[in-house]
Every structure is written in structure tokens, then in C-alpha cells.
Amino acid sequence: MNTQNLIRPALANSLGSALAVSLFAVVAVTPAKAAGVDAGTLIENTATATYVDGTGPQTVDSNTVSVRVDELLDVTVTSLDAGPIGTATGDEVLTFEITNQGNGPEAFELTAEPAVAGNDFDTTVDGIAVDTNGNGTYDPGVDQILTAPETTAVLDADETLTVFVLVTVPASATDTQESDVELTVEAVTGTGAPGTSFAGQGVSGGDAIVGTTGADATATGSLLVGITTVDLVKSVTIVDPFGGTSAVPGSVVTFTISAEVVGSGSVDNLIVTDAFPADTTYVAGTLTLAGGALTDASGDDAGEATATGISVDLGTVAGGTTQAITFDVTID
Amino acid sequence: MKLLGKICAALMVIAIPAAPAFAQDNAIELSGDVMAVKSSTDAAGNETTELVEPTVIVPGDRLIFGTDYTNSSDETVTNFVVTNPLPSAVALAVDADPALIVSVDGGQNWGVLSALTVSSEDGASRSAQHADVTHVRWTLASVAPGESGRLEYPAIIR
Questions:
Q1: pLDDT tens digit string along B44-74?
Q2: Interface predicted TM-score (ipTM) of this complex, two decimals
Q3: Which of A41, A45, A211 shows the shortest C-beta gap to B32?
Q4: Which residues contact A97 (CB under 8 A, 6 or more apart)?
Q5: Percentage helix, strand, coil, to 5, in chain A?
Q6: Are A298 and A304 in contact (CB under 8 A)?
Q7: In this structure, are residues A43 and B91 in contact, taking their beta carbons and an 8 Å threshold?
Q8: Hey, which of A25, A54, A206, A256 would disulfide with A202, CB 3.0 to 4.6 Å?
Q9: Do residue B83 and residue A47 have CB atoms under 8 angstroms apart?
């Protein structure tokens, strides 16, 4: 027993220095982290003196002083949306990225606040989901929805996590209204003024210290309602064979369909179709869009004329624009 | 178990003073210490710094590593050189004495920092920075009997 006890300190010392060497080696090859050296890292310092005395060259080491790096609690969160998300009423997804700016592993509690000063309307928060498959896009049924209190898994130092705030835009929202949603992220260990200390709650039983971020952060995601409508107005002019405007057999009837898109958003795949009236015959080659002629054939341009009517594909049309389509028929 | 623990503790206590007993064979004794520098600003806006025990330290904090030396023999020693490898978790503070002799290559080449260069992997060479320093070194031509002194360098936790 005594023998074992006697050798124990020596063994412990050699293990300690071996550990220290390996720790430092890891630090040396790892790129510098934003948050600095990892919590729990031992900093050990030993000086060595060489000199010459009466018996020749000598070497002596100092004692080794050792301090352990404590855990710094820091976090940032940013909106990954390029700007306000254009939305209609219904479900919408806001995307945020959380970064553990501290130097140790830490989990974070998330709070989404839909009632933000200046909002034209408030959304309803349906949940917060984690980008489980890491593709940056919310995938229902794949990306895990957090349960209250919404808390992330433990993130390593410098690790980032993408989260989604799932909201519902109320039916009462109207075109051009805006609404912000705030996501607040707080270190689970604790938050507070920079320098606030949580004794014994850091890595390896060390202390956890609140860093410059206060160990909490807030980012804002924005929604912009774009409700867009399409108004079609059809008008007609008639030229009869005698230079008048009577609707008689042989009169040429020009129909004009004005497609007006109203609202701040845009509409996709806007296709305008119109059937030829009974007892009329389409005048081949008279289909126009915005003053330019379109062929009657299908596929070569935006428009086509068939035996029964015309069809013009306007594609994606921004709000605030009006396009006119015309075609001629003769009265049989 | 308690008794065993006490025996063990007693042996540990004995073992620690035993180490310097061997060191008495050396003419020079070295004693290292480390302190943290904490700065605070009072109500009048004056910044004061004080040295405190490094009980709580985080990246960015400033440490002072010190080594006290004493010639406890009755003869003068010569060519006294104290070499201190920097722990890799710290960087030499930028306000360290510019005349300090340092190495940026693990102790192969020495000089004042402004005279040293670092070559990168692509072969290019640049001026050495404080963060490149791997070792610091002090040289004294001689230390008389009974003479003592203190050597310090400031460092920032990376």
C-alpha cells in the first residue's frame, strides 16, 4: 500500500505533463477560433535556467504554474432571410442562424416574439424547428420541431445551427403590411452583464463567465404582405363594311382585353384565354400583345389562336402593370 | 478508507517539500508564478489595473508570468540564461518590452521581435508578430552570491 502511494505523485505528474503537451499540440494545429482557446484548456508555464558555476554548466527548472481557462458564454443570432419575406396569408417560415461564440459547449433556449413594436399586424408563432438535415430549408416532417421550452442541443464552441420560426400570417393582413418576428437566444447556463460569473458551471467544473454579448442575442425576421389581384377588362370596337360602327354581317370586331395586375407582389403563370363569340370568325394573324403581333401558331411565342379562341401566356407579371391583348373577328 | 486517505494526504504533503530539498544542490533557485491583470474603471472614469490570483480567466484576459531567481550559493554563476517556452494557449502581449529576446521558431533562432521573420507554407516571408512568439529568453552575464531578481512577461489568452 505504502509503495503504491509513494509512486502515485510521480505517476500523476508525468500523466499531467503528457496531457498538457497533447492539449497544446491540438491548439497549435487548430485554426484560431473566434472565441479563443477552449474552456478547460490548461495553461502551464515553466522557465528553465542554464548557467555555469564552479563545477561546470548547470540546468534548473522552475516549478510549473498552471491555470485553467474558464468557459466564456457568448452567442449571436442572425436572420438568414435576405430581406422581408414576401408573403400572402397563411403559413410562412423565417430562417435564423445561431452561433455559439463562446469557448465551450453550450445549449441555448429560443424564444420567438411575434408582437414587435411597429408591426402592422402580428403573426402567430406555430413553433421553432431545427434544420435537422442541414439543407437550410424547412422540411416539414424532417426538421425537428422543438418542444417547450425550446432549447437547442449542445453546440460546440464556434458551432452554428440553423433554426426556423414557423408563423401564420392572419387572414386580416392586407397588401403591403409589414410584420417583424424577433428570435431571442439565451445561454442555458445563464445570461447577464458581461463578466457575470456562474461558479462551477463551466467546462470541467470551472466557472462560466458571461462574455461581451451578455450570453444572449436577438435577431429580427420580417414579413411583407404582397396580395396581388388581376383585373381583366374587355372592350370592343366595330367597323362595318360601310365605314360605320354597326354590327352587321361582314363587320370587323376588334376585342381588346386589358389585364391589369394590382398589388405589391406579382402573379405567376398568368394566362389569358378568350373564346370567339358564336357566329363570328377569327381574322387570322390579328392577335397582338402590347401592340406587338403574335402568330396564331402554338409554341413560338406567348400567344396562339385556335379554332375556338385565343390564349396568351403572360408568365410572371409584377403588380402595377397593365398589358393589352387584341384580336379581330368578323361577323358571319 | 478514511484512514488510508489521511495517510495518502500526509504522504503528499511530505512529498512536496521534499522536491526543493533536492534542488538545493543547485546554486540557482527558480520560482515561477502567474497573476491575472484585472482592469476596472472607477466612477470618475479613471482606469486602474491590479494583479489578482488567476482564479477566473477567459480568452482575452491578460496574464503576467513571473520567475524569481536567487543565487543561494556562495559563488558567482556566469552565463545565466533563463528560457521560458510560451504556453501555446497564450500570445505575448503587444506591449511587451520590445527589447525582450524572443524566438518565433520553437527556440532555434533568437532576437528582438522586430528583427525576426516568419516564413509561411508558400515560402513567402513576413515580419514576426507578437502572436508568433514561441519562447522568451533573458540573459545575465553573472549572478553574484545572494543576488536575486525577477523576470516577467505579459501574455494574452488566445
A1: 888 888 888 888 888 989 999 999 999 999 9
A2: 0.79
A3: A45
A4: A77, A78, A80, A160, A161, A162, A163
A5: 10, 45, 45
A6: yes
A7: no
A8: A206
A9: yes
